[in-house]
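TASK: fixed-backbone design
INPUT:
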């Protein structure tokens, strides 16, 4: 998914399922552009040999995720049930959450 978000296409695209599987097993995706933490993470995630592939612990410690407070993510409350509504009457009694501020707090945007 990270590769697709960065490059706008899948790293392995065959004409059919079998060719796609063969590409996954044999091809190394081209990570064009300057070396960045994101490209490094993608390269490590797409490592062919499982023993050399980045682990979950290493992913959490990777430079790309340096600003993520993993403990805070685990403490995030579950999304409340949001029923369909026809008018503002349905909002009575429901707490409105400022999602942007909450996410910025989780990821500590702008801080090192």
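OUTPUT:
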């Amino acid at each position: 998914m990270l590769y697709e978000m960065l490059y706008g296409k899948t790293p392995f695209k065959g004409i059919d399922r079998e060719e796609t599987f063969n590409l996954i097993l044999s091809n190394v995706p081209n990570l064009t552009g300057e070396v960045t933490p994101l490209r490094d993470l993608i390269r490590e995630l797409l490592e062919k040999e499982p023993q050399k592939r980045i682990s979950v612990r290493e992913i959490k410690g990777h430079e790309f995720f340096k600003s993520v407070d993993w403990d805070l993510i685990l403490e995030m409350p579950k999304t409340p049930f949001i029923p369909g509504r026809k008018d503002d009457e349905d909002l009575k009694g429901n707490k409105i959450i400022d999602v942007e501020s909450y996410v910025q707090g989780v990821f500590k945007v702008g801080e090192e």
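COMMENT: Residues 1 and 68 are 19 Å apart (CA to CA).
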